[in-house]
Amino acid sequence: MDPVRFGLVGYGFGGRYFHAPLLAAAPEVEFLGVVTTSPERRALVASEHPAATTFDSLAELKDAGAEAVAISTPADTHSRLTDEALNLGLAVVCDKPFALDADAAHRSVELAERLGLPLSPYQNRRWDSDFLTLRALVADGALGELTRFESRFERLDPDPGPPPSGGGTLRDFGAHLVDQAQVLLGPVASVYAEWRLRENGLDDDVFVALTHTGGARSHLSGSWSQGAPGPRFRATGTTGSYVVTALMDGQEDALLAGQTPATLGADWGAEPAERWGRIHRGDDGEPVPTRNGAWHTFYPAFARAVRGEGPVPVEPRDALATATVLDAARRSATDGTVVVLPAG
Predict the structure, then answer these.
(1) Lesser CB count within 10 Å: N end or C end of the chain?
(2) Residue-wise pLDDT tens digits, 60-85
(3) Do 88 and 182 sit in the same domain of this protein?
(4) Cβ contacts of residue 300 below 8 Å, gap of 6+?
(5) Could you tell me if residue 250 is inside a domain?
(6) Is 66 helix (H, G, I), strand (E, B) or coil?
C-alpha cells in the first residue's frame, strides 16, 4: 500500500504527544507536517520532526499533496476545521471531543457521507491496555453477564481541567468515558449526571450514570481535582468482577517520555505485573495479565480506510452517539433530572 500523505492541525499537548509521534511511526503514513502559525510551535516541529514541514492553513497543506489530516486543536474549533478539511477533499481524523454538541457532530458526519470521505473520531482509548483486556474478558465470559461498569478518569492537577476553549471536563474526559461504555454495553436509554462548576464556569468532578438499552448500567467519573482517585475500572458481572487500580494506561507516559512504537517495538503498550487488574469472586482476586496497549494501530487502520482497504477504526456515527449522551448529561446536570433518550 502506498503510504497516505497525512498532515496534522495543531501542535499543542495533544498534537505534539498523542498524534505526531504515532503518525511519524506508522509505515502506512507519510507525515507531511503540521498546520500551525505559532513561531514557538513551528520551532518545536522543526526540532522534533525535522523531515516535516509547517503550513499556514489547511488549504496550503492540501496544495502540498495531503490526502488526510488529523485535527488536534481547541475543542471549540473542531467542527469548523473538520468541515473545512472535508470540503477540501481531505479524509479527517478529529480528536475528542469530536464536536461540542450533537447537532454539530451530525452536520460533520452527514457532510463526510455526502462527500464519500473517511471520517473518524480519535477514540484512542479504545486501545488502552486495560480496556482491551476487559473487552477480552467479557467476550470470553470470564465475568458472566456484565451488569455494571464503573470507569474513572481522575487526577489531581494544580491547574485543573482544560481551558475554556476545551469545553470542560464532561466533554473532555467524558468523551472517552462514554465511548468506552457504549463499546462495552451498547446504546444508552437514559442519562443522569452531576457536576461541580468551577469559578471559570466550566464543569469538573463529573459523575454520569447511564442505563443501557440492554439493562446494564455504567457509572462514570471524571475529575481534574481528585486527590484520591478511585479504581480505573470495576466491571461487575454475574460471576465475578474485574478491578483495575492503576490510574491510567501507560502509553501516555511512554509518549511523554519520548518513546514511540518505533523505538519500543514489541514492548510498546506492555504493562508491568504490578499494574495488572484482578478478577474477584468474593476473595482477594486473581491477577490477569494485561494485554499490550495498541494506540499505534489507529493510524494504520485509518490509512487503509483511505485506500479503500478496510473500515475506519472508529465509525463517525459513534461520535454522534457519544455527543448525544453528553448533551443529555449536560441537561441532566443543569436541571437535576434523568434524561430519557429516544429509542434507536
Answers:
(1) C
(2) 999 999 999 999 999 999 999 999 99
(3) no
(4) 26, 27, 28, 29
(5) yes
(6) coil
Check pLDDT > 80 for residue 158. Answer: no
pLDDT tens sequence across 198-239: 888 889 999 999 999 999 999 999 999 999 999 999 999 999
284 secondary structure, DSSP code: S
In a domain, 344, yes or no: no
Residue 10 placed within a domain:
yes
3-state secondary structure at position 342: coil
Q: What is the pLDDT of residues 47-65, one digit of tens each?
A: 999 999 999 999 999 999 9
Question: Which of 227, 206, 98, 214 lies closest to 152 in space, CA to CA?
Answer: 206
252 and 162, same domain (yes or no): yes
Q: Is the full-model pTM beyond 0.85?
A: yes
Q: How many domains does the chain have?
A: 2
What CATH number is given to the structural domain containing 25? 3.40.50.720
Residue 165 has pLDDT above 80, yes or no: no
Q: Are both 60 and 176 inside the same structural domain? A: no
Tell me the mean pLDDT in the region 276-300. Answer: 96
- Edge-to-edge strands, sheet with 119-121: 53-55, 29-35, 4-9, 68-71, 91-94, 119-121
**Structural domain containing residue 112:** 4-124+298-314
